[in-house]
Write a structure and sequence with these properties.
The chain is α/β, with parallel strands linked by helices and about 190 residues long. It is about 30% helix and about 20% strand. Helix 1 runs parallel beside helix 5 and helix 2 (about 100-110) runs parallel beside helix 3. The longest helix has 16 residues, at about 45-60.
C-alpha cells in the first residue's frame, strides 16, 4: 500500500478571506495607549477601533488590515500589520479630515481581486461617510459579488444609520473595551 487514499475524498477546507478597514478620520481622536485610559472609561473612538481591528485579526488568524481617511470619496490607504497600534496622532501619523467610506470599499474590493465569494469585510468607523449614496452603491455591488460585511461602529454614533448603507451587514457597537466580546460573537460564524 501507498498510504490512506481517503484523505483525498473531500476538498481541502478554504480559509475565509478577511479584510479589515479602519477609519482614521479626525473625528476618531487619538488611538495611542497614552491618550486613552480604559480604567477611567476615557477611550477615543480611534483607540477602540484599533482594539477592535486587533481582535478581528486575532480571531481570523490572518487578515488584510488597512486604515483610511481622505477627502470626498478619494480614500488615502495606509496598509497595516495585524495587531498594529499606531503612534500618538500628536507625534506623527494623522489621518485626514473626511470619511471616504466608498473609497475604502473600493480598495477592499481591489484587495480581494476576484475572490469575493464568502469574503468578510469588516468596516470600523465612528461616523457617516462623505457620500452615503456612493457608499451604499459600492457596498451593494460587493455584497452581490459575495462579500459579507460586519460594520463595527465605535463611540456613541447613530450606528443604525451607518449600518443601513451595507446590505445584510451585521452591526456591532463598541462603546468601550467590554464590547469587544460582542464583536467576537458577532463574527465567529463568518470566520468558519
Amino acid at each position: 500500500g501507498y498510504g490512506e487514499s481517503r484523505v483525498f475524498e473531500a476538498p481541502p477546507r478554504r480559509r475565509t478571506r478577511v479584510v479589515v478597514s479602519v477609519d482614521v478620520s479626525q473625528s476618531m481622536g487619538c488611538w495611542c495607549e497614552g491618550c486613552n485610559d480604559p480604567e477611567t472609561g476615557r477611550s477615543f473612538p480611534g483607540y477602540l477601533a484599533f482594539q477592535a481591528a486587533a481582535a478581528v485579526g486575532e480571531a481570523a488568524g490572518a487578515a488584510d488590515v488597512h486604515a483610511w481617511s481622505g477627502f470626498s470619496d478619494e480614500a488615502v490607504i495606509y496598509p497595516l500589520p495585524v495587531g498594529h497600534q499606531p503612534l500618538c496622532v500628536y507625534d506623527g501619523f494623522r489621518g485626514n479630515d473626511g470619511t471616504p467610506t466608498a473609497g475604502a470599499l473600493q480598495h477592499l474590493g481591489e484587495l480581494l481581486g476576484g475572490e469575493t465569494a464568502g469574503a468578510v469585510g469588516v468596516i470600523i468607523t465612528d461616523g457617516q461617510p462623505y457620500s452615503a449614496e456612493a457608499t451604499h452603491r459600492t457596498a451593494t455591488r460587493l455584497v452581490a459579488e459575495g462579500v459579507q460585511f460586519v460594520v463595527v461602529v465605535v463611540g456613541n454614533t447613530n450606528a443604525e444609520r451607518i449600518a443601513d448603507l451595507f446590505p445584510s451587514a451585521r452591526l456591532v457597537r463598541v462603546r468601550g473595551l467590554d464590547d469587544l466580546a460582542d464583536l467576537g460573537r458577532g463574527i465567529a460564524d463568518l470566520l468558519r
